[in-house]
Design a protein that fits this description.
Layout: H1 2-23, H2 31-36, H3 42-57, H4 62-75, H5 98-104, E1 114-116, E2 121-126, E3 131-144, E4 146-149, E5 152-155, E6 161-165, E7 172-176, H6 186-198, H7 203-211, E8 218-223, H8 228-234, H9 254-262, E9 264-266, H10 277-292, E10 299-303, H11 310-322, E11 329-332, E12 339-344, E13 361-364, H12 374-385, E14 394-397, H13 405-417, E15 421-426, H14 438-443, H15 463-469, H16 473-477, E16 486-491, H17 503-519, E17 539-542, E18 547-550, H18 560-564, E19 568-573, E20 586-587, E21 595-606, E22 611-615, H19 620-623, E23 628-631, H20 638-642, E24 654-655, E25 681-682
Parallel strand pairs: 10-14, 10-15, 11-14, 15-16, 18-20, 18-23
Antiparallel strand pairs: 1-2, 2-8, 3-6, 3-7, 3-8, 3-9, 4-5, 4-7, 11-12, 12-13, 17-22, 19-21, 19-23, 21-22, 24-25
Helix pairs in contact: 3-4, 8-17, 10-11, 12-13
Length: about 700
């Protein structure tokens, strides 16, 4: 039986080799690679035969193919073999220029090569239509050619861009794009490339670039990125893994060491962002509509269930639009973000917490859900939407609650905001959601609006909302009419790491990172060292200068200060004048709908001097207009309170002896935080005069 098995193995190898030799008799292998051919599987032999034929057609020496066989057989992993070279043009097709003919006779680049060009710097050569997927943070400069990162195009001559490919989101990729070449000779093209590289690279690096340079190739410089925000976030335990992941097995490859000095790591292509055909089609259509401006600036509303890629699509679309337009407006209506805002578009080459900006108009809601308070949700959206000037395209993000009353609320939003395009997301794991066609929206009743069939006039106008929206005078004369929208369906097929079981913890991590990124604005600019939060001087706010309101639950007036102390507060501006009160604290009976100018931490309350101690990065000129403090269900990250450096003895606001049986002591009250399984617990100090040192 052993001999028969050996004969069968030899027979299959010889038959495979004979078929390859009959197809191309001029292909010859030495005896050693021919023996190792037998260790490959049938798929590996098939792949090898195809590569040998392509190499022979490209005019490559057969020894190159033999060495590939030896490496693949020795490693025992034919899947990691070098990709097949691209065949050169046939003799019938003449090259476009002398430079193309010179580069076609040389073997093209198979894998984007990386070369270290100094401490914390690496050079990347990207052939056209090839990508480089990575994780980590770096500064990207396009020295020659044109590349695209997360939909944003970076061309030669543009300033460097900070790119954040973090662990909480899909890895980013740098893709080389086609760019127009002037009609120049080979010497002129090389001279132009050398002049562009001269100010960034030394002589040896420029020579290496020219030796490996090919037609339509892009040269990218990757540099180490260090900011005060990143240093502040990584200074807390458990947050350093967000930006860079260490390899489980140490490597000594030159490419790995070069990328590690930059602060990034090469990842597999499947870990990067994969866009479906319907997503690319929707992006192309929306970009064309926004750039044409035939019927005015489009209003694009994006809807769908949870975890289908709405926020990723919005950021990618904003980057695509900013390649052609000067600005884009964005309206965030997802309560998972805890705020409503209208802001001018900014290039998002990374997750939201890495690109915080001051919005044009913002309202602090303070709760991650609008259940049992739908009317207030609608009123806030109307208030924020009134700031839209209709001078640029508007992208609207909605909540992932699309069932039962959430669907009816979404219908109200479509009628209220009157979008020109509705992008509806769906995937295999998402809940059923009917197609929100214009006819479906017209025939369905919302929570607060009626269908067209129940209205006298079929051209239903927004008369009920015109006064609340506070349109401009010229817009009041011609009220907005529901003329219908265009529905664009998008199917996504992402690999999800978020499940219903870990969704809440994942959202909490993102909220904590956003708060830490916001607090990093208190840090001095680089290269000064970080300053602990308890060492910073807070602002002193008198009791009678601001009003107080707890938004997420009813609190007895005698316990208001307990809830405000050591809390995350919204710094707001209300229209009412609160300066007439002498003592304070001033308590509001209802939650106002007002502008939010920023956020801060109430790090202490002085009962003797009747002062709030507020720590915030909001500028002093804007703080003078703040007259209201709103406290919601968003808590300060535990790491801020537990990891206070330089404190000896008892850490303020932290205790190991906490009794959850006391009424009101449970963290579940007000849906603040899930109870954690650790010994150290956070609490509110009953003595307001004791502040953080």
């Amino acid at each position: 039986m052993a001999d028969s098995g050996l004969l069968l193995k030899r027979g299959s190898c010889r038959s495979t080799w004979l078929r390859a030799r009959k197809a191309r008799p001029q292909l010859i292998l030495s005896r050693r690679p021919r023996r190792r051919l037998g260790t490959l599987r049938w798929c590996g032999r098939r792949r090898l035969r195809r590569r040998l034929l392509q190499a022979q057609a490209a005019g490559v020496d057969w020894r190159e193919g033999a060495r590939q066989v030896s490496r693949a057989a020795a490693a025992g992993r034919p899947k990691t073999a070098t990709p097949s070279p691209i065949p050169s043009p046939t003799p019938a097709s003449e090259p476009e220029s002398e430079f193309e003919s010179a580069s076609s006779c040389r073997r093209p680049l198979l894998i984007p090569p990386v070369r270290p060009v100094g401490p914390g710097r690496a050079l990347l050569l990207l052939p056209v239509e090839q990508g480089f997927t990575f994780s980590g943070i770096c500064r990207v400069t396009c020295l020659y050619g044109q590349v695209q990162v997360f939909g944003f195009t970076i061309s030669q001559g543009q300033p460097a861009r900070d790119v954040f490919s973090v662990y909480t989101h899909s890895c980013l990729s740098i893709h080389a794009l086609h760019y127009s070449l002037p009609e120049k000779s080979k010497k002129e093209l090389k001279r132009e490339a050398r002049n562009l590289l001269k100010s960034h690279l030394n002589l040896d690096d420029r020579r290496w670039s020219m030796q490996n340079f090919s037609l339509q190739c892009s040269i990218v410089l990757l540099e180490h990125l260090e900011t005060a925000s990143v240093n502040f976030i990584t200074s807390y335990p458990g947050s350093s893994y967000i930006f860079v992941q260490e390899s489980p097995t140490p490597q000594i490859k030159p490419e790995y060491l070069a990328l590690r000095s930059v602060g990034i790591r090469r990842e597999k292509k499947r870990k990067g962002l994969q866009l479906t055909e319907s997503t690319l089609s929707a992006l192309e259509e929306l970009v064309n509509v926004s750039c044409e401006e035939v019927d005015g600036c489009p209003v694009i509303l994006v809807c769908g269930s949870q975890d289908v890629g709405k926020s990723t699509f919005n950021r990618y679309l904003i980057n695509q639009l900013l390649n052609s337009l000067p600005c884009v407006d964005y309206l965030e209506c997802d309560l998972g973000q805890t705020v409503f805002l209208v802001e001018t578009g900014f290039r998002h080459v990374g997750p939201p917490f890495t690109h915080l900006r001051t919005p044009q108009k913002m309202v602090y809601y303070g709760k991650p859900s609008c259940k049992n308070n739908y009317e207030n949700y609608i009123d806030i959206i109307k208030y924020v939407f009134s700031a839209y000037k209709r001078e640029s395209p508007l992208i609207i993000n909605t909540m992932g609650w699309v069932s039962d009353q959430g669907l009816l609320l979404l219908i109200d939003l479509i009628r209220l905001l009157s979008p020109s395009h509705v992008v509806q997301f769906r995937c295999d794991h998402s809940k059923y959601m009917p197609d929100l066609t214009p006819q479906y929206v017209d025939d369905m009743d919302g929570l607060y609006t009626k269908s067209k069939t129940k209205m006298r006039n079929r051209r239903f106008r927004l008369a009920a909302f015109a006064d609340a929206l506070e349109f401009a005078d010229e817009e009041k004369e011609s009220p907005v009419e529901f003329t219908g929208h265009k529905l664009i369906g998008v199917y996504t097929d992402f690999t999800y790491r978020i499940t219903p079981r870990n969704r809440e913890s994942h959202n909490k991590i993102l909220r904590d990172l956003t708060i830490l990124s916001y607090l990093s604005q208190l840090q001095p600019p680089m290269p000064k060292p970080l300053s602990p939060l308890h060492s910073l001087t807070p602002y002193q706010v008198p009791f009678n200068a601001v009003a107080l309101r707890i938004t997420h639950s009813d609190v007895a007036p005698t316990h208001i200060l307990y809830a405000v102390n050591a809390s995350w507060v919204g710094l707001c501006k209300i229209q009412d004048d609160v300066r007439g009160y002498t003592n304070g604290p001033i308590l509001l009976a209802q939650t106002p709908i007002c502008d939010c100018l920023g956020f801060g931490i109430c790090r202490g309350i002085d009962m003797e001097k009747r002062l709030y101690h507020i720590l915030t990065p909001v500028p002093p000129e804007e703080l003078r207009t703040v007259n209201c403090l709103l406290v919601g269900a968003i808590a300060i990250p535990h790491c801020v309170l537990k990891c206070q450096r330089g404190i000896e003895g008892t850490v303020p606001y932290v205790t190991t002896d906490y009794n959850f049986k006391i009424p009101g002591a449970s963290e579940k009250i007000g849906a603040r935080e899930p109870e954690e399984a650790h010994k150290e617990k956070l609490y509110r100090r009953p003595k307001f005069c004791r502040k953080m040192k």
